[in-house]
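Reviewers of the previous submission asked for a worked example of the structure-prediction workflow described in the proposal, so we include one complete record here. The input consisted solely of the amino acid sequence. No template or homolog information was supplied to the procedure at any stage.
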Amino acid sequence: MKTLLGKKIGMTQIFAETGEIIPVTVIEAGPVVVTQVKTVETDGYNAVQIGFLDTKPHRVNKPLTGHFKKADVSVKKHLAEFRLEDGESYEVGQVLNVTEFEAGKKLDVTGVSKGKGTQGNIKRHGHHRGPMTHGSKNKRLPGALAAGTYPSRVFKGNPGPGRMGRDTVTVQNVVLVKVIEERNLLLVKGAIPGGRGGLLRIRYAIKGQGK
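From that input alone, the workflow returned the following structure tokens.
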């Protein structure tokens, strides 16, 4: 299964054989364990559920405790499900790691972007500021939102101040530069959404998407 859960470690840079400096994000990917295999006969669709990172038993509820006990695996902090046509080829308890991936291939990486809190329209949407001269009353405020006579209201979806960040973001077709099997590390070119320690979903790039 060319899909794993991982944790963002941070960014660094490495040197290519040509001497070029390549900025990379270091991801601790797996190992993950198969906790459930779903089939069309039992669940109506084919999928594989995997668990990542051990945690203390008291940190999960009783239904999940029974779920892990039935699968005969240790309690996991994160669970994720991926639909696969060949899901039946996997077994509960099977361990998957970075050996599933090959350097030079392209990946799609999904994470949660950093939360910025409540921000103004300039930072949130890139709006221009008003004149900074003496007497200006519109330096960093939003401009006119709607006419007074018609429609005499603000249309929904009008960009303005509000919560920024903390969104699920997928970066497509990032190049896998290096695989360090002994440490379960993937080095991908460029930046990945989220802060250090953030949970990531890593899979081979879907054909026909991205550049």
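Residues 118 and 166 are 11 Å apart (CA to CA). We consider this example representative of the routine output the project will generate in years two and three.
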